[in-house]
Amino acid sequence: MNASAKELAALLPPGFTLGVATSAFQIEGALDEDGRGPSGWDVFAAKPGAIVEDQSPAVSCDHYHRMPEDVALMKDLGIDSYRFSLSWPRIQPGGSGPVNPAGLGFYDRLIDLLLENGISPMATVYHWDTPLPLEEAGGWMNRDTAYRLGEFAAIAAAAFGDRVDRWVTVNEPATVTTNGYALGMHAPGEALMLKALPSVHHQLLGHGLALQALRAANVRGEIGMTNVYSPMVPASANPLDKLSAGLMDVAQNRLYADPVLLGKYPDIIRAATFFSSSFSPSSEDMDLISQPLDFYGLNYYMPTRVASGPGEGAVPPGMAEAMGDDLSGTPGAPFHIASFPDTEHTAYGWPVKPDYMAVALAEMAERYPDLPPVYITEGGASFEDVVVRDAAADRRIIPDERRLRYLADHIGTALEATRPGGAAESVDLRGYYVWSLMDNFEWSAGYKQPFGLVHVDFDTQVRTPKASYYWLQEVIAARRAASAAHVPGAAVGQQEPDADAEPPRPAG
Ligand code: BGC
Fold first, then answer.
1. Å from CA of 410 to ligand 1 middle
2. Residue 295: strand pairing partners
3. What is the pLDDT of residues 470-488, one digit of tens each?
4. pLDDT digits (tens, 9 = 90+) for 247-268
5. Which of 83, 341, 474, 490 is the most buried (most CB within 10 A)?
6. Ligand 1 atom with minimal separation from the 23 CA
7. Taking residues 81-101, what's their average pLDDT?
């Protein structure tokens, strides 16, 4: 037994959900099969230079054909819940109008298989794969897309509302706006900078309409939405650095969380819109956006260190290179992202700062007094993996100690922070979903940034659990053992104890 696995298990409150997360476009492949329509991401990814080494999402993890194998990996891992996304272009190929029965059928089978295996389904309605006809009509710059998302949510609710335990309406609108519409690093590849602002409001409105549709359909699951949150850290005590960090905080955090949790945009945004007629949200819109949630989804990966002045680039140091993109030099930019000194970084160039997991939760609690229960809907790290051949045992080993440590430290910090007396004790933290179950298509970074607990060989499609997978398996087994010891005969989570369970056979 790895001592830290046992220690972490001891920290887990009763009923705490441990899960893994993926998204449709990143794992499914089968882009042209069974009636799926094209998405804005299909077109963006096909543009020369858009993706590292022009890698293609066409096959990715081939999950569309290997779904039962992937559910078996989750079952062996022992997780309580699986967060996946519904592919809009697979279910409603045109983004409006007819539904594709084969698309619905795929998720029917997935959800049923999860439930048969005691894994609770969490479905994300929108995780960035906008159907192409909608993208061509302006995507999230067009208000109509929000109404189309509401209709899509109604379709999903009618099909799966009886079996999905938790719904996430929209995933990380901040990333879609910043990377997709402001900087052009993600689909649709627009570099509108501040003119991208309407895409914020339209996504949040899409969230509100999707939430309304799910409630109207009386789905039995809980409903929430997911924002990414990155604490902003001024590079120095210099007032300009502080001001810069405050502006980044508005642009990346408050702009998305305030409307949902407080029912209004930050003051500075409202003041700015005084000068622009293109963005004037009505009170009806704000009511839709701020409807009560059953839970709030928080994706936490890292804090951001901010300094005034143009600096060297628009993205964290190392990330531009990792994405194969020339984003260096943003002449005239008022501030930039700076590195944390003496800090470990992931392969993406992201700082590894578990203590800021607690800061993120504490800031959320302070800003949003009526914060609903929270699930950390994503957290994880990309590190270059090395596959080692264990000749004696005739198997492959992937000793991803750094990813394992990242997860142990972040989950542990989140649990400590939300205990009585912790820095974020008022936060009702209900669960943590590891990003990701398996290595996958990491958007513009292609297959170059592996986040998986399971390694995927993209030539052979062989899946090999990494050390981090076996560690999480130990955490879950230790929790089960501890709870069985306390209450004779009781099992925590939704799975029966299985002391003799063999880990899945590592592929040779
Ligand atoms: C997204 C995922 C992505 C992950 C790692 C999140 O922003 O929701 O789709 O793969 O972070 O970059």
1. 16
2. 224
3. 999 999 999 999 888 876 6
4. 999 999 999 999 999 999 999 8
5. 83
6. 9
7. 99
The per-residue pLDDT of the chain, averaged, comes to: 92
**Both tokens assigned to 326:** 């020339």
Q: In this predicted structure, what is the pLDDT of residue 270?
A: 78
Ligand 1 pocket residue status of 442, Cβ below 6 Å: yes
Q: What share of the chain is helix, strand, coil (3-state, %, to 5)?
A: 40, 15, 45
Residue linked to tokens 């407080």: 262
Domains assigned to the chain: 5-230+255-301+353-501 (3.20.20.80)
Q: How far apart are CA 215 and CA 195, in angstroms?
A: 33
| pLDDT band for position 490 (cuts 50, 70, 90) | low
Closest residue by Cα to residue 198 from 291, 272, 293, 129: 272
Cα of 319 from ligand 1 centre, angstroms? 14
> What percentage of residues in the chain have a pLDDT greater than 70?
90
Could you please report the per-residue DSSP string of 42-97?
HHHHTSTTTSGGG--TTTTT-HHHHHHHHHHHHHHHT-SEEEEE--HHHHSTTSSS
Q: What is the spatial distance between Cα 160 and Cα 148, in angstroms, rounded to a whole number?
A: 18
Neighbours of 407 (CB within 10 A): 24
CB of 377 closer than 6 A to ligand 1? Answer: no
Give the tokens for residue 42.
Answer: 């299909």
Q: Identify whether the C-beta of residue 178 lies closer than 8 Å to the C-beta of residue 250.
A: no
Q: Among all residues, which ones are annotated catalytic?
A: 172, 378
147-171 mean pLDDT: 99
Instruction: Tell the residue nearest (CA) to atom 3 of ligand 1.
Output: 442
In this predicted model, what pLDDT tens digit does every residue of 349-402 receive, in sequence order?
Answer: 999 999 999 999 999 999 999 999 999 999 999 999 999 999 998 999 999 999
Distance 21 CA to ligand 1 centre (A): 10
> Dihedral of CA 425/428/432/433: which sign?
negative
Ligand 1 atom at minimal distance to the Cα of residue 440: 10
Alpha carbons 442 and 371: distance in angstroms, whole number: 30
395 CA → ligand 1 middle, Å: 30
What residues are paired with 82 via a beta bridge? Answer: 20, 121
Gap from CA of 305 to ligand 1 centroid (Å)? 20
pLDDT > 90 in the chain, percent: 85
Q: Among the atoms of ligand 1, which is closest to the Cα of residue 228?
A: 7
**Ligand 1 pocket residue status of 230, Cβ below 6 Å:** no
Which one of 26, 226, 435, 448 would you pick to mutate in the ligand 1 pocket, going by the greatest count of ligand atoms within 8 A of its CB?
435
- 299 within ligand 1 shell (Cβ under 6 A): yes
Q: Is 172 in the pocket of ligand 1 (CB under 6 A)?
A: yes
